[in-house]
Amino acid sequence: MPSFSMDCIVNRTRFLNAKLADGTLADLTVAAGRFSAIAPAANTATPPAGAIDLAGQLVLPAFVEGHIHLDTSFYGDAWRPHIPCTNGFDVRERVAFQMRNLEQAAPMAERAKNQLELCVGNGSLAMRSHVMVDADVGLKHVETILAVREKYRDLVDVQLVAFPQSGILSSPGTAELLDEALKLGCDLIGGLDPASFDRDVDGHLDVVFGLAERHGAGIDIHLHDGGTLGLFEIEEIAARAKALGIGGKVAISHAYALGDISPDALAKAGEMLAASGVAIMTNAPGNHPFPPVAALRKAGVTVFAGSDNIRDSWWPYGDGDMLNRANMIGYRSGFYEDWELESAHDLASHAGAKALGLEGYGIAVGAKADFVALKAEHVPEAVVAVPKERTVYRAGREVARQGRMTR
Amino acid sequence: MPSFSMDCIVNRTRFLNAKLADGTLADLTVAAGRFSAIAPAANTATPPAGAIDLAGQLVLPAFVEGHIHLDTSFYGDAWRPHIPCTNGFDVRERVAFQMRNLEQAAPMAERAKNQLELCVGNGSLAMRSHVMVDADVGLKHVETILAVREKYRDLVDVQLVAFPQSGILSSPGTAELLDEALKLGCDLIGGLDPASFDRDVDGHLDVVFGLAERHGAGIDIHLHDGGTLGLFEIEEIAARAKALGIGGKVAISHAYALGDISPDALAKAGEMLAASGVAIMTNAPGNHPFPPVAALRKAGVTVFAGSDNIRDSWWPYGDGDMLNRANMIGYRSGFYEDWELESAHDLASHAGAKALGLEGYGIAVGAKADFVALKAEHVPEAVVAVPKERTVYRAGREVARQGRMTR
Prior knowledge:
2 copies of one chain form a homodimer.
Chain A: H1 2-9, E1 12-19, E2 25-31, E3 34-40, E4 52-53, E5 58-61, E6 63-68, H2 91-104, H3 108-122, E7 124-132, H4 140-151, E8 157-163, H5 174-184, E9 188-192, H6 201-215, E10 218-223, H7 227-244, E11 250-254, H8 263-276, E12 279-282, H9 293-298, E13 303-305, H10 322-333, H11 338-347, H12 350-356, E14 371-374, H13 379-385, E15 390-394, E16 397-401, E17 404-405
Parallel strand pairs in A: 1-4, 6-7, 7-8, 8-9, 9-10, 10-11, 11-12, 12-13
Antiparallel strand pairs in A: 1-2, 2-3, 5-14, 14-15, 15-16, 16-17
Helix pairs in contact in A: 3-4, 5-6, 7-8, 10-11, 10-13, 11-13
């Protein structure tokens, strides 16, 4: 059986009868972890030995988790009831609550592992995690999560954002710690509501963009500030990114303001974001305005998706399933038509890959063979049905099935 | 083994180590389809023969599906892409689209069966389905769904609403058809936006309340009208229900208006609804204001949950999983604390049972042994995790597992 021997020699795997997003059936060949051939399904009576028959399952590129917090989740640990802030939502009070919770929690590495396996089990093989850096915790979180990333390197690609959870100017010493975090291996520099938190937009952004330039790092800023204030900050970030020509490496997470400004202001913001290349991350929060996905995409803005918090001190929700997140984004956005459902999926796949700057993403010859196989007729059906029965392949090897790690 | 023999003789089943909502472990005894005993878990070394060990799984009363359309779903049939209305949303245009779709669809009985099994598989063993009645379709839908209900009587309790999808005054002959539908076996009389659709609030409600009185039937009215117009209609419905003393049998589905009126107007509406006994059904729609669940519950209003459309001509969403619906309602309502998550679950369980007037609902001695067992520490965790691995019992007998019918 020559095909078997050859496949063994070059470490080649064949996947038969894969339903592609365009509806066709294909046979996929994987060699050295990448797709080396994609051909119309041969449907031969005697399939090559060792081939895996996907039996018409839909094959999607592995999902991209665009925003997660690996250091703060309690997933898989004891249940920790949420408590409200004493006088309306307050980030500082919430951070204090988080610190009390974390003191009693299982070791961070273990909790991060639980969350990583949850995500991989659901089919996310690339992710961006924010990791808290402030004067209190110093670089402890960064060091722990860097070690976890190393341990899971073969399973999942993790980008780390050095995240000033307690502000930069408000938490003296944080700028230096962020610098150190980037030296240690963080890929991006984060930020947090320059106006409402540090009350100094320029001062905050000077540090963020300064560090990005010095380290050649990307930027991903948490921006919850709403209305015209948030819009002003978005304009400032886009202007700086454009001036430095680094827009493709800059993202704004949440950007709630885009969800509560006038259509005219939104149109202007969309043009500016598209021209700068700055991407917008949303998780389609439940009871909060969020960026209008369709309008921004139409304007040419890269909009991508993330879970954000998963069962932590900020809220109890989150399941680490980016297909369910695409469903939520579609549901919250009023996406009913097939192309709209496909665009919801795009946020958790191709647009996410673009925002994260991933190399070799997709179901294409030369791309990494990181993919998910599940029972759905096409992408729109996958988005509305969110089948939990799915198999996850990393570099062409099965790593999870029905949500559970198999490797 | 005397316990085995006795259990056989009285048709008794024992479920051991059930986690109850209060966190305790209990042994449940079911006789003749009802809970005959609930006792602290005995945890004996030698469990009674034939007993089913639930091994600490959380036991919840079977979910209550408060609003579904058994006649119009394409679930399990060919995928039918959604198309938008030509000039903004228009109910009449949507109904025409639905008629075209239904002409090409699989037989209604088959589609209804698919949807029923989806719901039962997810743990809903009581539901209220609206069934279209108008001058075009006549009683065809009602007759078909009545037959399906009969066939599934042992599996699920179905209430049917004779639903004037094309209005009452706008579709001559409909009043007589609704009368006939109630004679044939429908349990409730429905309605549809008396103001915006029939443009005659009194005329529409005269028919609805008149038929309800004549047949001793309940009432469940679709009300999408927003703002002060919708509020006016809610007031009219509540006033009529109160005057007739039948509020406990009257529900308003959707009631979007409650989601976009001022807090003062909402407070007044809440008082009036609570005093009249009229219940409010919501599915927490994705991109639309909806009734504020917490405020209404605090005012004493019965708020219950439904899927509404499942993959039909109105939208592609819906999974027939009322635990996921509770999750969505919590997510959309900003419910983070444990008691809030429990209240989201209440909409899909006890409050639903109250709105539907179900007898013998709950995990209690004397109640029907219709329940779901799943892996969760408690109700709040079940609501955020929505475990798909669950077993569904009807009258103490397993009917579904992991979403699939086993009986």
